[in-house]
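Example pasted here:
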Amino acid sequence: MDIIRVLMTWTFLAFLVSPNLVQGIGVNWGNQASQNMQPSTIVQILKDNKIDQIKLFDSDHWTVKFFAGTGIEVMLGIPNNYLAELANDYDKAKDWVQENVTKHLYDDGVKIKYIAVGNEPFLKAYNGSNLKTTFPALKNVQKALNEAGIGDKIKVTTPQNADVYESGSNAPSAGNFRSDLKENMIQILKFFKENNSPFLVNIYPFLSLYQNPGFPMDFAFFDGGAKPVQDKGISYTNMFDANLDTLVWSLRKNGIQKMKIIVGEIGWPTDGHIKANVKLAKKFYDGFFKKMATKKGTPLYPGDIEYYLFSLTDENKKSIAPGDFERHWGIFRYDGQPKFPVDFTGKGNDKMPVGAKGIKYLEKKWCAYNSDLKNISLVPDNLGYACAMGDCTALNYGSSCNKLGSVQANISYAFNMYFQMQNQDVEACSFQGLAKIVKTNASTSECLFPIALESAGTRLWMQTGISILAGLLVSLALF
């Protein structure tokens, strides 16, 4: 019997240290899509791929309850439009904690780890609109957690875009928080220190490449091909290390020597821009996972780094104000199917991630341009409408559907995207008589003409900021 116990113990230990068992991998999951998969399917994807942390952008009760008993650590989100309410009324913060946190904390309930109060509230594009509400909201939510007796286990934080700090040069040691934020940041940092809360930062090498034509492309990756940046005896060979260490310097200059840093979002898009493609996304993730597997961290932040990939799935209703690639950050497609082989362990043993199972699609039919019609004058306005209210981002130069080969095929793609995003409503395939419903799938090896999913929940309205102009620009490019 003793021998059996020993063998069982060693078997269990071997399982714990197995290189195929991934620990500490997190993902973001957003729901700005025309149809969303069931939360139970999301749980299946996470568990099948041994991803044990998820970051949400809200705290929808129906969604969160599906994570009960799964062992998956959940970070709940509070959108920016709640900040003023929670900042100005402590009772509202207490109610929020009771309704969205404590209700899930029963035996074998949801494993809630963090509350993300706001999402990149100090982004430059917001013009300071959240400066007066973020810190008071943080305090009230943490106070409510403390009063509920769970403040020692669940911590508040605020995901910040990396634009909250800057160096003025390529040297991390020149880093500091933006002057317009410094007073707020010092308050928040002291509060985090007192409450043992982490600093959550979103780092995007792709955005550095996208926003700066002079940015050295190799510096966005991890294979050592870039010209190193020398700073105080440290040689930086990739943007991730340099960016995170710029944050470390910013913390140090404001009196914070040690604070846990979590990378709240990091990833690479696969469509919508010439440098947003599967090949470069795979290159980025392969290098990133290999680096994370070493658990060496960065020169100034050594050790294991907790992180959340962005994102689990594509979201075809995200605002494209930052760029058309915004709808294509997913490692998985809209239907939960993987896009490319990868090894989350960083060991280089590539294989396709396990996709969603049991996905239910609507009928196999598509909306296509009726090429028999000759009234071409109606096309520009209808195409513009389809692109503005649907999703034409994959038609961009260098994108997956940019080589369809004919104007008619491009029009059909735009019409079909709108049709599918409208749940195959017959009236959504009219376009003043320019379109017809067909049974022929026009997908190519590179370009997917999707079929809508049976949606899991209430359909979401389009985000503001998607203008008719975007669709018209596409139409002009096609003609």
About this structure: Residues 341 and 352 are 4 Å apart (CA to CA). The longest helix spans residues 278-294. Confidence is low (pLDDT under 50) at residues 1-23, 457-479.
